Amino acid sequence: MNKTLLFIPMYNCEKQIPRVLSQLDENVCRYIHEVIIVNNRSTDGSEKAALTYLKAHPLPIKAGVLRNDENYSLGGSHKVAFDYAIKEGFDYVIVLHGDDQGDIHDLIPYLKNKKAYKFDSFLGGRFERDSVLVNYSSFRVFGNHLFNIFMTFMLNRRIGDLGSGLNMYRVEYLRPGFYRSFTDTLSFNVYMLIYGVYSKSKFRFFPLSWREDDQVSNAKFVKQALEIAGITFSYFFKRGKAFDTGGPAKEYTFKRIECDE
Questions:
Q1: Model pTM greater than 0.70?
Q2: Region for residue 254 given its phi and psi (left: phi exceeds 0; alpha: psi -120 to 50; beta: otherwise)
Q3: Domains along the chain?
Q4: Of the candidates 46, 68, 89, 78, which has an alpha carbon nearest to the alpha carbon of residue 216?
Q5: Which of 117, 95, 75, 118 is nearest to 6 (CA)?
Q6: What gap in Å lies between CA 253 and CA 37, rounded to an integer?
Q7: Which DSSP category does 258 fall into?
Q8: 88: number of Cβ within 10 Å
Q9: Closest Cα to residue 83, out of 166, 14, 169?
C-alpha cells in the first residue's frame, strides 16, 4: 500500500479546523498513514483548537501539529510539508486546507479505484462538470472561468482550476525540489501548476464540493488576478527561466507541538 501523508496548512482557522479534522473518519484514515497540521503562526486559537480536538478524538493514525518558526505564508508551509514527506519516505502527499472549504471525501473514490495514484499531481477542481459550489459568488465563478480559459490558451493544456484546497502529489515528482525556489505567497499553487505543464508531468483535475460559509479568504481577487497574469506571461515568453524567481533559499524550520503544551 502506498505510504501517504495528509498535510493540513492552517492559518487563523480556529472555528474551521475542528470541522476539517472531523472529516478524518475510518474510511479516510485507511488511505492515510500520518497527518501533519502545519500552523503558520496563527494569531488566534487555531493551534489550541487543533490540539484539543486531537486529544479528545484520537485518530487511528499518527497525527500532530507542526508550528512554523516564522510566518512562511501558504507556499512556505507547502515547502515544510513537501520536505517532510521526502525526508520521511512517503510516496504521496495530500493537501487539505484547514479552512474547511473542501471535503477530503471527494478524493476517496479515486484512492479506492487507484486512479489518483496514476498522476504526478491529482488536483481538485472547483469548476469541473460534477463539482458543487455552495455560497460561492457568481462574480468569482465567472472570474475563475475566464482565467481558466485564459490559462488553457496560454499554456496549451486544459486548466480546470488555478489552485484549490485539495490536491495530491507524488513524492517522487517532488523529490528534485523544484518547488523550493517558488514564491511563498498564495501564487505558489500557480507556479506548481505551470511547472507541471513545463515539465510535461502527468496531472488531472477531479470534481470537488466546495463551500464558503464562515471562511475568510486571504486572496484579494484583483491583486491575485494581476499576479497570475504576470506569472503566466512570464512563462509564455521565458519558459523555464520564469521559474528562477529568486525565491527564499532559507531553511523552513518548525517545532513539533505536543498536546499538553
A1: yes
A2: beta
A3: 4-257 (3.90.550.10)
A4: 46
A5: 95
A6: 14
A7: P
A8: 13
A9: 169
Residues 6+ apart with CB under 8 A from 185: 73, 74, 75, 227
Strands (E), the chain: 4-10, 34-39, 62-68, 92-96, 121-125, 132-134, 166-170, 203-207, 209-211, 254-257
Over residues 118-174, the pLDDT tens digits come to: 999 999 999 999 999 998 888 888 888 898 999 999 999 999 999 899 999 999 999
Give the strand pairing for 34-39 and 4-10. Answer: parallel
> Which of helix, strand or coil describes residue 197?
helix
For residue 91, what is its C-alpha cell? 510516496
How do 132-134 and 166-170 pair as beta strands? Answer: unpaired
The C-alpha cell at 28 is 479516510
